[in-house]
Amino acid sequence: MGNRIKVRLVNYTKRPLETVTWAALISYWDGWETEAFERMSGKDVEKHLPKVLGYGHESILEHAVLTFSIEGCSRVCSHQLVRHRLASYTQQSQRYIKLNPDDVEGTFMIPASIKEDPELLKEWKEFMKHSMELYKKTIKKGKHQEDARFILPQAVRTKIVVTMNLRELKHFLGLRACERAQWEIREVAWKMLEEIARNRELRPVIKWAKLGPRCIQLGYCPEGELMPPGCWKRTREKWERITEG
Ligand SMILES: Cc1cc2nc3c(=O)[nH]c(=O)nc-3n(C[C@H](O)[C@H](O)[C@H](O)COP(=O)(O)OP(=O)(O)OC[C@H]3O[C@@H](n4cnc5c(N)ncnc54)[C@H](O)[C@@H]3O)c2cc1C
Q: How far apart are alpha carbons 108 and 155 in whole angstroms?
């Protein structure tokens, strides 16, 4: 499995950009009516949505929600994810999972920096295997899995489903696609953006709402002197590759 984290956009609001545009039009269109939703076309979206988002009226983005599945990230990562409060989550339970002590890398996330150091990697793997064996032994001795799991390192992999509206997703990407974010949650954030970029219906909103790290959203880096060297160029190029490629 390596460090591979799988992220998929599994579902989203039907006709997402039409929904958001139709909601926006209620504010200033005299002829607005419920049935106008059915008549909303791609042309209406293109005419109104970039303009309204350009004014900074972002609350309309809350009318479209996206559901992602994330598999194989660590609990270190999922803990950072769930700090984002304006989203909904369902996560694999540690009370029912079965761990395999012979599959250390399948069960735990091992950072690349550790993999580069053969001596450390060996010790890490031994420690992880030992934690799994102790986990199994604890269960075998009749203790409940909900107690046995206390012995597992935070590196243990997990699966989580997250549903965010587009406005919260923008906020999340702003913070977590940034190079200042920790590498694993950053990987998840960019994969979410890639999933949106791959989707024909949603793709245009990336440019109109500036979905991406905060330097893309704001046009400058709010991290100031904390900005990693060369980050601005790297990030812009990566964003353009994903959103234009
Ligand atoms: C680089 C980085 C380093 C971090 N380091 C730490 C750390 O050392 N320790 C730590 O504890 N956390 C840390 N965090 C997590 C961070 O503090 C936030 O908890 C996390 O990013 C969630 O962001 P949020 O609160 O802006 O947004 P969300 O929970 O996604 O909410 C979105 C927005 O809604 C509004 N909002 C939500 N809830 C409320 C509320 N109750 N009251 C008012 N407004 C609300 C705010 O405007 C908020 O920005 C770090 C995050 C990053 C990106």
A: 5
Give the predicted TM-score (pTM) of the model: 0.95
Q: Cβ–Cβ contacts within 10 Å for residue 140, how many?
A: 9
Within this chain, do residues 55 and 167 fall inside the same structural domain, yes or no?
yes
Enclosing domain of residue 187: 6-90+157-244
Beta bridge partner(s), residue 174: none
Record the tokens describing residue 91, joined without a space.
């996560």
**Residues in the chain, pLDDT under 50:** 1
Q: What would the pLDDT profile of 40-58 be if each residue is shown by its tens digit?
A: 999 999 999 999 999 999 9
Q: Is residue 203 part of a domain?
A: yes
**The one catalytic residue among 167, 176, 186, 214:** 176
Please indicate whether residue 62, judged by its CB atom, sits closer than 6 Å to ligand 1: no
Using the 8-state DSSP alphabet, how is residue 228 labeled?
A: P
